[in-house]
Design brief:
The complex is a heterotrimer. By secondary structure, chain A is α/β, with parallel strands linked by helices. Chain A has 3 domains: about 1-30; about 35-155 and about 325-430, D-Maltodextrin-Binding Protein, domain 2, CATH 3.40.190.10; about 160-320, D-Maltodextrin-Binding Protein, domain 2. Helix content of chain A is about 45%, strand content about 15%. In chain A, helix 14 (about 355-360) packs antiparallel against helix 15 and helix 18 (about 450-460) packs antiparallel against helix 19 (about 465-495). Chain A is globular and about 70 Å long. Residues about 20-30 of chain A have low confidence and may be disordered. Chain B is built from 12 helices and no strands. The longest helix of chain B has about 30 residues, at about 70-100. Helices cover about 65% and strands about 0% of the residues of chain B. Chain B is an all-alpha fold. Chain C is mostly helical. Chain C has 2 domains: about 1-50, no CATH class; about 65-305, Orthogonal Bundle (MetI-like fold), CATH 1.10.3720.10. Chain C has helices at about 10-20, 20-40, 55-60, 65-75, 80-95, 100-110, 115-130, 130-140, 150-155, 170-195, 200-210, 215-240, 245-250, 255-260, 265-270, 275-305; strands at about 50-55, 60-65. The chains are: A alpha/beta, B mainly alpha, C mainly alpha. Chains in contact: A-B, A-C, B-C. The interface between A and C is medium-sized, with 33 and 33 residues.
Chain lengths: ~500, ~290, ~300
């Protein structure tokens, strides 16, 4: 019996050893520079491997660079990134993503893990420089130097408020008449009280939302109250969540919540649940990407919605939807990279005309055909794999208002979709002072988000009396790193920004 | 299990059965929800709502999970790592625990050292650096070797082995049997319930483990199934890329299909293991 | 025998070691893996006393002594709140969750029908396989103010719906109860396994003496699995400073952070999210040392009271 056991174990070990030597076999061409990029391509790749498919092979052949991806599409990307950079074998370039991308960049740059790109850009990335706007580059700077190439969204301010057209019609409201905050309030109030879906039951709400992500609930009306952008008050540069306007906005949102205009379950709504509610027809308005992908995939029609501008401020000026960055992510190059030119060539290519057509239209013969000199997308390929190509390239040509890109996109999104894109761009703006203000490493030990989110949700849901607790909230923030942040930002504002 | 001669249905017994059945039903519910949701039409299901039958039958979620060759790649890796990893880990842990259950010099220090590893953890990056220095990064064995030693299991097994009566092994020793023979032929059969339990724990752990696949593996063909599945789930939950007309499967469809697909093999294998949880056979005479 | 008088103690020990060299060999393999994969990485914990720099690595980074700890303990009042939440949740779990699998196992053990036993066992294991991500949505839906079962019942009795997930006072209860729902079943495996190891003859002898079911449970079953209980209890106490990440991450919204934020979520946000590795290591060390102290104390107490211990 023992002999059989040993035999079995030995057999298993042998099998395992054979397996252990199996590693990826990438198609390698001789004499092409090779670069390794850590990235997160988390879209459907039609069953193919990110390192072996028509798109990446085309790029490799066209640019003459052997690109290899280490791809992590899990929710553990940050751990993966940290580990690879701590190892003795970091990638040549990698993606910095999500809301922490700026702190990550500051951290890596501070430690000399990243390559400053300023001296390389003029020579190797003329198209990138010409296409990507200054604000996008600002976000990639640390200590005055550029440390990453930004992926500037072509829809760099992508959100819009969508209101149900049928409800407006049923209640006789003309969207053009809804301009001020009071107008909006009255309209939303009527959504709740006046039975807009005409079913005789009192079951409708004004706004549906989730509470996650800094742009969702929080973007409604914020700028209209002057609560979305950092401002200088009494000689101090205060972040938006410490302004009096923020307090006013909280009170307004609380009013909406108490009167059941804002979905009382907004705190626990997940993304899916929000769309279920939209599809249920019981909610009058929501804020979302102009692209409305989830909405459309539920079989609903863009034509049923009206996109509306944010309400005017008290002083009559126009408000916007405010964003902290025009970039979805950034691509940084590690200091140990040996093939810097190859990496930059790769990134730059996406902003050439050839690269832009590849990105937006795909491959000739696979995704589109050339008919009479114009690019015509194949029916079954319309709108497919755009995200895949975007993530494969890592950066993109963001200016879509020019031909031939404009008509390519129009084929994917339709006329109304393109209108919505234009509106989203028009109604969006940046939190300038916050965007240009550098990241201070001393602040990374503090957790402002937690305090702000907790207070915001408690205030909106009425668990705390805003007037009674506002001062305490401010004091708490100041004590937990807020004073330091204000001092550093104000110094920067006075000394560097105003030059 | 001996048949009891008196079949009186006492009140206390009825209560026990009632409570257990009620609890069992409550426990089945989430799983039933997972199953039903995975077979429902992705557009129609309401997240979190328990339903007895699928809302609109659809295999779409499973189609997405299974159509990718990477799923089967992942499955292969996961099966291999579970089989090999469990065999190796179980052997090492059982032997170690058996030896530690004997009263030999240094035993207490060893036990303390083991318990300390339950409380103290070096962290992901230092562990990665160790794995890297052993040239294990991006190899199959990175999924096996770090999990060979598990302090929880060892501590539990020690308490099981320590509870075994010494008399059997002592008489075997007098007959001239070596320590290892005693271990294999006497102790192990006696400890079958405990060993089977630990085997289950190790196997399930291997099957479900995600982090090592993420951190240690770079090549796609070495990624265990869990990594692939989580990537699938992530695609449908976070989406800041705009795909104009791509059919996105709702998060809940994918999540539940993924759960069901990944735990089905375990649940299929489990009944075969269950018979080992029946009491171990006492070998030979123990008393006197 | 070795107890012969006149042989010095050290010689006796050496004899013992040599006689048992097979056993030491059996320990060796596991020991090697333990040193390599557990103790070597612990060297990385020194970054709790350093300012970790990726460039310089673990050994090259600068020493800052206790500065990291100083920051956490003195300049971050939030830390105590987080520690309190962690401790409270774990104590509640110790009180309510820990006995649950034991009671369940004892009950299951009473079942006479083998088939029923198997069905119940398999059923109660099932929630363990549902990830917290999905299980969390089930819990949240269950407690939903508009469509959740609990609130439907409340409304049927004429009450106002309760927003459970938004209200701090319910959070701890939700955490403990949902943990029982999800994990108590899986936890019975260990105890059932231990129960099968109890000599059946003891039960028969007791029956002959006229003992009823409850008495047999109290005097045979529980003592029979007491080793397992003690081991698991002691280990649980050692983890008192550590609440699992996934459950809290899924169930806690910012609005209940004052009671819901625990060390693991705090570390995730600040440590990982803001790349504060020294801080992560420092907090980890803190957790470990508290755990160690508690285990040592509890172990000593157990030895005195029950004559059982871990080592």
């Amino acid at each position: 019996m023992k002999k059989n056991l040993y035999a079995l174990v030995s057999l298993l070990l042998v099998c395992a050893m054979v397996l252990g030597t199996v590693t990826a076999a990438t198609a390698e061409e001789e004499d092409r520079p090779r670069i390794v990029i850590l990235t997160s391509i988390n879209v459907d790749t039609e069953g193919t491997d990110v390192n072996d498919n028509d798109y990446i092979n085309y790029i490799r052949d066209t640019i003459g660079v052997d690109i290899e991806f280490i791809n992590d599409g899990t929710n553990q990307y940050r751990q993966k990134m940290n580990t690879m950079l701590a190892s003795n074998n970091p990638p040549d370039a990698f993606m910095l993503m999500d809301v922490t991308q700026r702190t990550d960049l500051a951290r890596w740059a501070e430690e000399g893990m990243l390559l400053p790109l300023d001296d390389y850009l003029a020579e190797y990335c003329p198209d990138l420089l010409a296409s990507i706007k200054d604000e996008a580059w600002e976000v990639t700077k640390y200590d005055g130097k550029i440390y990453a190439v930004p992926f500037q969204r072509y829809d760099s301010t992508p959100y819009l408020t969508f209101v149900r057209k049928d409800w407006l019609e049923n209640l006789g409201i003309d969207p053009d008449d809804v301009k001020t905050i009071d107008d909006w309030y009255n309209m939303l109030k009527r959504f709740v009280t006046d039975d807009p879906d005409g079913n005789g039951i009192d079951d409708t709400y004004g706004i549906v939302s989730t509470s996650s992500g800094t742009h969702l609930t929080n973007s409604y009306f914020k700028d209209s109250f002057g609560a979305a952008r950092a401002q200088v008050v009494d000689g101090e540069l205060l972040p938006n969540y410490m302004l009096d306007g923020y307090k006013e906005w909280l009170k307004f949102m609380n009013k909406l919540y108490e009167e059941k205009i804002l979905d009382p379950e907004y705190i626990v709504n997940s993304g899916s649940q929000m769309w279920e509610k939209v599809a249920s027809g019981k909610y009058g308005m929501f804020l979302w990407f102009w692209g409305l992908q989830e909405y459309l995939s539920k079989g609903l029609d863009r034509e049923d919605l009206v996109a509306m501008a944010p309400p005017l401020r008290e002083d009559g000026s126009e408000a916007s939807y405010i964003y902290s960055s025009p970039n979805r992510h950034m691509m940084a190059i590690t200091a140990d990279c040996e093939n810097v030119e190859a990496v930059l060539k790769f990134f730059n290519w996406s902003c050439t005309e050839e690269g832009a057509i590849f990105l937006y239209a795909g491959l000739e013969g696979k995704d589109y055909d050339i008919v009479d000199g114009t690019i015509v997308l194949r029916e079954d390929r319309k709108g497919k794999n755009l995200g895949w190509r975007q993530l494969t390239l890592g950066v993109q040509q963001p200016n879509v208002d020019q031909e031939p890109i404009k008509s390519i996109l129009a084929q994917s999104f339709g006329e109304l979709g393109m209108e919505h894109l234009a509106l989203a761009t028009k109604y969006g703006a940046y939190n300038d002072l916050d965007l240009f203000c550098p990241i201070f490493e001393e602040l990374s030990q503090y957790d402002f988000d937690k305090i702000v989110s907790e207070y915001t949700d408690k205030a909106i849901t009425g668990q705390v009396d805003i007037d009674a607790t506002w001062d305490e909230y401010i004091q708490n923030l100041r004590q937990m790193g807020g004073d330091l942040k204000i001092q550093l930002s104000t110094d920067w504002y006075n000394n560097e920004y105003n030059k | 299990m001996q048949a009891r001669s008196s079949r009186k249905l006492s009140l206390s017994y009825a209560i026990i059965v009632a409570i257990l059945v009620a609890f069992a039903i409550v426990c089945i519910m989430p799983f039933w929800y997972v199953m039903v949701s995975s077979f429902s039409d992705p557009q129609l299901i309401k997240e979190g709502l328990f339903k007895l039958l699928p809302t609109g039958w659809s295999l779409e979620a499973y189609r997405v999970v299974f159509r990718d060759v990477r799923f089967f790649n992942g499955l292969r890796i996961t099966v291999l790592r579970t089989v090999i990893g469990t065999a190796l880990a179980l052997s090492v842990q059982t032997m170690m625990a058996y030896a530690l259950s004997k009263k030999i010099p240094g035993r207490r220090i060893f036990m303390k050292l083991v318990v300390v590893t339950i409380l103290f953890n070096g962290g992901i990056i230092p562990t990665y650096l160790v794995v890297q220095s052993l040239y294990l990064v991006d190899t199959f064995f990175a999924l096996i070797l770090p999990m060979v030693f598990n302090p929880w299991n060892v501590v539990l097994l020690v308490s099981f082995f320590a509870a075994q009566p010494q008399s059997v092994s002592e008489s075997a020793k007098l007959d001239g049997a070596g320590e290892f023979t005693i271990f294999l032929k006497l102790s192990v059969p006696l400890a079958v319930p405990a060993i089977a339990t630990i085997l289950l724990f190790i196997a399930v752990r291997h099957w479900n483990e995600l982090m090592d696949g993420v951190i240690y593996i770079n090549s796609s063909n070495l990624k265990p199934m869990q990594v692939y599945l989580i990537e699938l789930v992530m695609r449908s939950t976070t989406n800041t890329m705009i795909e104009p007309t791509e059919q996105s499967l709702t998060a809940i469809s994918i999540q539940t299909a993924v759960i069901f697909a990944s735990c089905l093999p375990i649940l299929a294998v489990y009944p075969f293991l269950q018979r080992f949880f029946v009491k171990g056979i006492m070998v030979g005479a123990v008393k006197g | 025998m070795l107890s012969a008088p006149g042989i010095p103690a050290w010689k006796r020990r050496l004899r013992l070691i040599l006689n048992n060299r097979a056993l030491y060999l059996m320990i060796f393999l596991g020991f090697a893996f333990m040193i390599v994969f557990r103790y070597l990485p612990m060297g990385g914990l020194i970054i709790a006393f350093k300012k970790y720099s990726f460039r310089k690595g673990i050994f090259g980074s600068d020493w800052v002594g206790l500065k990291q700890f100083e920051f956490i303990f003195t300049q971050n009042p939030d830390f105590y709140n987080v520690v309190r939440n962690t401790l409270v949740i774990n104590l509640l779990k110790l009180l309510f969750y820990f006995p649950a699998p034991i009671i369940l196992a004892l009950m299951i053990n009473e079942l006479r029908s083998v088939r029923l036993k198997r069905v119940i066992q398999t059923s109660v294991y099932l929630p363990h396989f549902v990830s917290w991500v999905v299980f969390g949505t089930i819990v949240i839906q269950f407690l939903s103010p508009t469509s959740g079962v609990v609130n439907q019942i409340i409304k049927a009795f004429g009450g106002e719906p309760i927003f459970f997930m938004q209200d701090s006072k319910y959070f701890w209860g939700i955490v403990v109860v949902s943990e029982i729902w999800k994990s108590a079943g899986w936890g019975t495996i260990m105890y059932l396994s231990a129960l099968t190891s109890i000599d059946q003859e003891q039960y028969q002898a007791a029956k002959i003496d006229g003992a009823n079911g409850l008495q047999m449970t109290l005097h045979i079953s529980i003592p029979g699995i007491s080793d397992t209980i003690v081991v698991l209890l002691l280990l649980q106490i050692g983890q008192l400073m550590d609440v699992g990440f996934e459950q809290i991450y899924v169930l806690a919204r910012p609005i209940v952070y004052d009671v819901g934020d625990v060390l693991s979520t705090y570390i995730y946000r600040v440590g990982v999210g803001q790349a504060q590795f020294s801080m992560t290591a420092a907090i980890g060390l803190f957790q470990s040392f508290v755990g160690l102290t508690l285990v040592v104390l509890a172990n000593a107490a157990c030895k005195k009271l029950f004559d059982k211990n871990l080592w």
